[in-house]
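Consortium newsletter contribution from the modelling node. Members have asked for a concrete example of what our holo predictions look like. Here is one, prepared for the adenosine-5'-diphosphate complex that several groups have been discussing at recent meetings.
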Amino acid sequence: NQTLQEGFAVVVRTFEILETKADIVDKPGARELPPVSQGIEFRDVSFQYDAQPVLEHITLKVPVGRIIAIVGGSGAGKSTMANLIPRFYDVTSGAILIDGVDIRDVTIRSLRSQISMVTQEIILFNDSIRHNIAYGSMDKSDEEIRASAEAAHAHDFIMDNPGGYDAVIGEHGVKLSGGQKQRIAIARALLKNAPILILDEATSSLDSKAEAEVQVALERLMEGRTTFIIAHRLSTIKKADRIIVLSEGRIAEQGTHGDLMASRGEYHKLYT
Ligand code: ADP
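And here is the predicted structure:
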């Protein structure tokens, strides 16, 4: 009886999750989004989760292949801005366009297939390293998985483990260090090979050797992709084609590192 009661409780919780309806769904007649060729545009975008506005009147054009760094204090709206691109939320007003097409007019699947995200919250499964890297790209060969791991500077630590690519990494990857988890996430993004990249660069938890390795892997990942990066590290910020400074949900300043330092405003204050 006890086993059955426990089983019922699990079933109820499991079905609550399985039956959750997504808030964001394809609209009738949604089209496939062709591979991005021109760029991404925020057109007068405002957003709020509830009563409080989080982003207000964001207008920004990002040509394909550019690196945009988003900086600003905690709670400024950086992650929110990044999360609107794959439609984790829909804009409250305004629009986000890819090659001039409103992202609400295309299928979510075709939109998200063009976006890779590497964030602070890396989702790993209690499965082999091979399956964790190939997650979402199950049609890839062992050679492709290995090539991605090499490019992400993950191959060596993977081979140091008994079991190599077949080693099981534990619940949420407990058997891996922070830097190793990040490199698995980077290998996954390299394998997916999507043209748009969203990086929430968090390395505060890494020691300097791990940070250097992650940095090299990230640079490899950014090559040739349109990248939005929530940047903390100076090396990335300096390399960005444009820096957006968010303050209280608005673009307070934008320009290159040199421009923004010279104008001695918000960025100069953050930087110094
Ligand atoms: P940043 O990335 O710049 O630190 P965020 O985009 O995470 O800022 O958050 C901007 C604001 O939105 C904050 O006030 C935060 O509390 C709020 N916020 C973030 N996520 C949610 C959410 N899922 N629901 C409600 N409010 C949220």
